[in-house]
Amino acid sequence: MELLTVKDLSFQYPDAIAPAVSDVSFSVARGEFVALCGATGSGKSTLLRLLKRELSPRGERQGEIAFDGVPIDALDDRTAASGIGFVMQHPEQQIVTDKVWHELAFGLENLGVERGIIHRRVAEMASYFGIESWFDRSVSELSGGQKQLLNLASVMVMQPRLLLLDEPTAQLDPIAASNFINTLKKLNRELSLTIVIIEHRLEEIIPRCDRLLVLDGGRLIDADAPRAIAARLPADARLMRAMPTAVRLFRALHPHPDTAACCPLDEREGREFIESTYDNAIRSLPEVSAAASERAPVALEIDQAFFRYERTAPDVLRGLSLTVYQGESVCILGGNGSGKTTTLGLLCGLRHPYSGRVSVLGKPIKQYRGQSLYRGCVALLPQDVQTVFLCNTVREELKGTEQAQASLPYSLEHLYDRHPYDLSGGEQQLVALAKVLATEPEILLLDEPTKGLDAYAKLRMIDVIRALQSKGMTVVTVTHDVEFAAACADRCAMFFRGEITSIAPPRAFFSENSFYTTAASRITRGHFDGAVTVEDAVALCLQNKLREGAL
Amino acid sequence: MRPFEDYNPFVHLVYFVSCSAIVMFFLQPVTVVLSLLGALSLFFVRRRLAEGRSHLYSLALFLVMALLNPLFNHNGATVLLLINHNPITLEAVVYGIFAAAMLLAVLYWFRTFSQIMSSDKLLYLFGGVSPKLALILSMALRYVPLFAKQAKRVNDTQRAMGLYREENLIDNTRAGARVFSVMVTWGLENGIVTADSMSARGYGIGKRTQYTLYRFYRTDVLLLCTTLLLLSIVVVGGALGALDMQWYPTLRLPRTDALALVTYVAYALLSFLPTILEIGERARWNCLQSRI
């Protein structure tokens, strides 16, 4: 039984040259969990918004969209509002009211539901989602993950039959993201809720969804079960970079599209595939000679720093010591609230420890008078890159920095006439980075540079950081993204409760960690030693022999 | 018996408005003293000696107010002394003291009122008048702190990028203005997302209802009725002249006949009602605890 049918749908924005969506036809059965994927600008978001009447963009639309057999334009207001739920990317901005309980009730209030019924539904939903313990709180006290869960719950109280989600986990840390996807799966399995979700990070979603719709340039180019698509996608397709590690590993070893192959989707299947296919006579790659950076002069030093935000608040940093050498790239990993971002604040002089010392390029940070610290010395790219922009166009934003622009490893000229807020996440990141680099710093501090980026933009970010580093820049990155850290760090540091618990080059760091590590390391653990990236694992597989009886 | 704070916000509103309105309308020594004692006892029963310094400010305010009246008001028959040929009269001194005490009483009623009235309760009250207004207030309560937080973030980022170049007031003001202007853009940009989120959840398709966490329990009705009863006794007494007071030209003492006494007792009960509830509730807990 089809709940949603889309037939020959085309859509063009006013003033656009080409249609954003063209000739898309598909249907979604009741209880199906569908993921919509494609590169930035492939028309995913436009398509998803067309499915929700209230959010439908203005422009020229052709074709049919039917919800439960009724064209969506003919639905009555109440069914359109409550039958189709929509969750967006930014957790903060979707929240309307100031209290959790009020937010939960908001949708039902709009429908004019009687107080007693609202009370029952809100109570039911709060219990199901485990919101009871923060029911009375202000929304400003919640973490990002809690906010997004609240957004989901406040759509679910309206009892939608179809749930549409536009990159709901892009702004969340990996643990909250995984938690959110699991909640969706639970809703899908227990309540047979029909879900259509857009995701950049397919790692979590692919093993859990029933069908994958692939969009490219506004056209639906493929729609099938994720395993089949993973097996037949061209190995060099842009989408391949977003695929789970197990898929990328398998496809790197089987580059020819082959629909018959049984492609592994998650770590467990990946491990089974590796262990059953390759033997492990050669267990590890030759050691790369230890980085000479240990002998380079010190760029940054934090010596037993203690920091708290208020006198009565608990310590955020407890005796933190960290030394970064010039020309080195250090990644700081760790859970939420472990003091990672605060450390960056300390390093760029925005915060000051109440005990302990911070020095930059061998000089105590307090001796940098006025703004001298921010001229050719330290620069910070914050987590929320929108805070970098002050002007109405990229051109104005980058005015007077032409010289610095010329030395960048990428060009931004095609974006000059656009408003910084209208750019995609990846483009915003690059423009903000260009503006930050215009001060010609020797030390670059990055806070979550891959947050909200698609796989392609992430790879480009890695290239950019590598290129900057090769010019001698020191880079300190705070990130949740272990794959990113494995690819672009010289050393990785693990933060826990305001101090560093371990610090080592990525290969040693990730192969000693058993939970907090890359998917490639989890797949090959025990079979190979020290393989932390897909490239490592592929190289090891190719050096080893195929097992007898294996394909 | 529940702690006073937990009653329905509407009961609180009626209570605090009646208490302070009476003392403002019927400014005479007995009501002022009762009201002040009631307000202070409620405050100290709830808060003990916390916020110690703020009481000193209140005392200073009281002294200033009490002193100002005789300095500027020269009515009254009994001249105590002359300053620059201006008479300082006994009547003006006494009136000044009681007027200041009245203000102090109202101040303490409203301090307790604002401690009890959380934003939720305030919205509940506004929602009774206009659900739309309540929603707008709720959104404002969310957006104002959000805006401030984002402004601080932008400021931090810009500082780390060297926007505030020198320790120079003009440059800093200019930079501050730029941050403010980008915050306006940010606000509008986010407003679009919020508006989308609202219309996606059916805002504006029909008449809204209002969901609240507060209900009227039996005890709420009881407290409300008691308040209204005591209020009407005092108002009727006052209307019949029981609370009349003459300050100028010569002081005349408040009335002490039967009608006046009944009115005083009613106002005393009204003033001490929440204190009695608080103490009673605590005694009851002690009693229950000892049985456990």
Distinctive features:
heterodimer; A: 551 residues; alpha/beta; Rossmann fold; 2 domains; six-stranded mixed sheet; 20 strands; 22% strand; globular; B: 292 residues; mainly alpha; two-stranded antiparallel ribbon; 9 helices; 73% helix; 3% strand
Secondary structure layout:
The complex is a heterodimer of chains A (551) and B (292).
Chain A: E1 2-12, E2 21-29, E3 33-37, H1 44-51, E4 60-67, E5 70-71, H2 77-83, E6 84-87, H3 91-94, H4 100-110, H5 115-128, H6 144-156, E7 162-166, H7 174-191, E8 194-198, H8 202-205, E9 211-216, E10 219-224, H9 226-232, H10 245-253, H11 267-277, E11 298-307, E12 317-325, E13 329-334, H12 340-347, E14 355-360, E15 363-364, E16 378-381, H13 394-397, H14 402-406, H15 425-437, E17 443-447, H16 455-470, E18 474-478, H17 482-488, E19 491-496, E20 499-504, H18 506-512, H19 519-524, H20 534-543
Parallel strand pairs in A: 3-8, 3-9, 6-7, 7-8, 13-18, 13-19, 16-17, 17-18
Antiparallel strand pairs in A: 1-2, 1-4, 4-5, 9-10, 11-12, 11-14, 14-15, 19-20
Helix pairs in contact in A: 4-5, 4-6, 6-7, 10-11, 10-20
Chain B: H1 9-25, H2 29-47, H3 52-72, E1 79-83, E2 86-89, H4 90-116, H5 119-129, H6 131-160, H7 169-200, H8 218-239, H9 258-291
Antiparallel strand pairs in B: 1-2
